[in-house]
Specification:
Elements (H helix, E strand, L loop, with lengths): L8 H7 L22 E2 L2 E9 L14 E5 L2 E3 L1 E5 L5 E8 L27 E7 L3 E8 L2 H8 L10 H11 L7 E8 L10 H10 L3 E7 L8 H21 L3 E4 L5 H13 L2 E6 L9 E7 L5 E4 L2 E2 L5
Parallel strand pairs: 6-7, 6-9, 9-10, 10-11
Antiparallel strand pairs: 1-2, 2-12, 2-14, 3-4, 3-13, 5-12, 7-8, 13-15
Helix pairs in contact: 1-6, 3-4, 4-5
Length: 310
Amino acid sequence: MSTMLQPHWFLITALLTVALAAPAQVRLTRHSKPSLRVDVSLVLVPVTVTDRRGASVTGLQRDQFQIFEDKAPQQIVSFSSEDVPSSVGLVLDVSGSMKGKLARAYGSTQKLFQVAHPDDEVFLVTFAQRPEMEAEFSSDFEALQKKLQLVKPEGWTSLIDAVYLALDRMRAARTARKALVIVSDGMDNHSRYSRSELMARAVEADVQIYTIAIHDPPRTKKPLEVAEQRQGLFLLQDLANLTGGLHFVIRSIDEISAAAEKIRRALHQQYVSGYRASESRNHSWRKIQVKLEVPHLRIYARRGYFPPGP
C-alpha cells in the first residue's frame, strides 16, 4: 500500500476494526423519530468512567453508582459491565476545508481493535457538500478501507446534515449499544438543518456521540473562518457532552492513535445501569444525573431523555 495515502487513513484505520462496505442511499427525513432506550418503564443509562488521564476504568460495582432523575434518587434495578456488541456509525468529513489538514501519513493501527467484539457492526457516512451513505451496517473492514481510499476532500461542508442523517440511520441498529464517531474540523457552511435542530434530535436519540476535532491553527485564516472553526469545535464538544460521549481535539498525527484507543475502550468498557421510570402523562424532558462514590474519576453519561409519547 502506498505511503502517500492521505492523512486520516491513519485515524480511519484506527477506528475501523469493525467496518462495513455495502453502498446504499438514504434520504434525509425531517420528521422521522429515532428510538429511545426506554423498555416499558426501564431506562438504561450507559456510563463511561475514566481516570484523569482519560483511560477507561473497569471493576466498579453497582453500589458505587447513584442515578437521579429530575434530582430524585432512583433505585438501580439492573447493572452490567460486560463487553457486548456495539453498533457504530462513522461520520467522516471529506470536504474542502479538510485539505490543509490532510498531511501525508499512514500507519497500521489495527492492533488497537484486535479485541473488538466479533459481532460489532459499523456504517459509514461521508460528507462534503451533502452527506452520503457510503456503506450500510456490516463488519467487512477490508472492503470499507478500500472504499475510503477512493475518497478525495473537496467541496462545501454539511456537517450538521451528516450527523442528522447518521442519527436517523442508527434506528436500524441491531444492538442495544449505539454510538457515532465523528471526524471533522467542525466547519459547516452548507447544511439544511440548523444547529438547534440537530441538538434537539441528539437529545432524543439513544446514541452516544464521540467526536474527534481536527484542529488547524488560525495562522493566515480570515476572521470569519476563525470564528466558524471555533463554533464548529464547540458544536462537536457539545454533541459529545450532551450524549455522554468523549471529545478529542487532534493537533498532530501523533495524537490520533491515543484518541482512537480511548474511544475503542469507551465503546467496549461501559457500565449500563437501569432504573424504573416514574409513570406520568407528562412527556417533557427528564434530566438524568449519574454520580460515582469514587474520587478523582470522570463520568460520561447522557444528560436526559424524552419519555415516549402516547
